[in-house]
Amino acid sequence: MSSTDVAPDAPEAPEQSSLRSGGRRFGDTLFSTLSVGSGILIFVTLALVAIFLTAESMPAFRESKELAGIFGTADPAFSLIGGVAPYIFGTVLAALIALVIAIPVSIGIALFISHYAPRRMAAGLGYMIDLLAAVPSVVYGLWGGVWLVPRLEPLYVFLNQTLVWPSWVPLVPSGEAIIPLFAGDPTAPMRNLASAAVVLAVMILPIITAMAREVFLQVPRLQEEAALALGATRFEVVKTVVLPFGRSGVVAASMLGLGRALGETMAVLMILAPGATFSWHILEVGMHNTIAANIASKQAESSGADMSYLIYTGLVLFVLTFIINAIARWIVSRTTVKG
Amino acid sequence: MSTATTTASTLSGARAAERRLPLWHLLLTGAASLVLAALVLATFGNLSIVGVILLGYVLHLVVTYVYSRVREGRRWAADRVVMLLVIGAFAIALFPLLSLLWKVIVEGGSRVVKAAPHPFAFWTSDMSGVIGGADAGGVLHAAIGTLLITFWASVISIPIGLFTAIFLVEYSSTGWKRTLAKGVTFLVDIMTGIPSIVAGLFGLALFLAFMPDQSVRMGIMGSVALSLLMIPTVVRSSEEMLRLVPLDLREAAYALGVPKWLTVVRVVLRTAIAGLTTGITLAIARVIGETAPLLLTVGMVTGVNWSMFDGRMATLPTFINQQYRAGKANCMSDTVTNVVNGDVYSCSITTNIDRAWAAALTLIVIVMVLNIIARLISHYFSPKLSR
To answer: What residues form the membrane-spanning segments (chain A) (predicted)?
Structure first.
């Protein structure tokens, strides 16, 4: 993916302005117009996305507490910040947990494929990880909801009830979970934020892995061999050469994974029992929801101003992922120029 | 304990011969750890294969570190442990993939094969008149909807995506077009990251702005929403393929006096055709499983709808979601009658979930077939470039 970003528009075909004989050919005009037009269409499309989402969420703006003064609304029904804030919290929390699970595993897989597995097997193993990306998200939701959720229950019970402060330790609330995130009162079925985050982690694994693998493969061979020649073990080569070289690539890959996790709908919709609180207890059921899953679950029975409020939350999500992805791309471009 | 005995027995021989331990030592400690894990779990009374493997893996990390530290030294011990961790990470990733595929094939496969009234009726019947826990119905309507909507999404996306790629590679060398190309590249990257639900909202908002009836849903709305997700994928893959075409070929064509557009069509596209087809097939495979946009834009029906511009449509992803949400069915009596054609079916509590698995199998089969086609095309038809 980086090659397209770096490659300067290499010695391009001549524009033929001086060599051309006679008038401009019809085919040339048509082709150049069509291709430039398509390029402009990309601009137009993204502008349309922003314009239509904003236009369709106008009724919600008009009915909101924050902008009631401007529009002169007597009895505002929505809160632009208060209404969407719990969903933003849930979205970001789920995505971050997924990231915390996925990043170490992805780095491990990328290292395995690029530096540990036998050369001949590497391509095949990479393809197996890519298969994870080919599975539709709705199938992940089905698998997570039916198969995974009951199987995670023992783990959650362990984290919540076994991993607690023993009574002989002073100054701590005995019987409370040692890690505050796992506190609370989870009840089966475990349709909680943690389960949704685990499935999200599986879904972003192939994205992060693919990019990290590519970066790790670009590590200068000479540097690795120099380290080996100095007597470094394979782990020391990885620690001193591969990881420093690939650090920013891994950061960028994680940001892309974050963008994907923020916008994922189906896995969350099909696994999470929704709620709208700011609870940090990720094992408790019915406490969180994400923006995307909230839109998907409420769209069927919404119309008019309610619908435009949903579209407004979609706009918030769009802006959120736009910023995350822009940062990721910026990191990528900065890295590739340096490398 | 097993490690201690092994160490004692082979100490004198191995140290003299070679500093590094051969691989079978690692396998031996692995086996020992598994046995140890099984013993520990058996003592606590909950012996299971998964438990043994998990605990055994963790124990193996410790055992290997200690064993290797004693035999090889601190640095090599760290190396061994990291190698185990890396292999473990790969195994963790394979676990969901294998369990998901296994589950889909077993659950979905049995429903597809056993479906009433005859095997594979699941793929030749729709859901009209199928109510309650009737052990009947199928995905014909949803499969047709998915194929139609994806086809029209491709019709919209492929020309736009291909021409954008041609613009980026062939027509953006100088002046303002160069600036435009930079902007397009950036925006395509941004489009790649658009959440699918936002694409769905866009498809909805776009049509609702011009429709008097705010509850209207139709296939073309879904196609437009999907094309928003498909265009960036097509652009990225096509651009990469077009850049692979050697400059010499273009220059040779120009030297012969071939116009630029004809060079693009007859030389550049012709050379890159295999890669382009592969990329486009993968792009189709990517959007064919998208659910959220279709949930918003095409709704759900029980019968076949061939029209893109008239009424709601069923698709495989939304069908899976709908059947999953329906959950367990109620069985008041042993049989259920189809209200449309009067057929009588047996009642099954799990019929909805079974249908969801079978539809998931259908969808995965379609996606995998597309992926395999893409692989085959790129394998057999890719240009033999001397690079």
So the answer is: 30-55, 67-89, 95-113, 125-149, 193-212, 265-283, 309-332
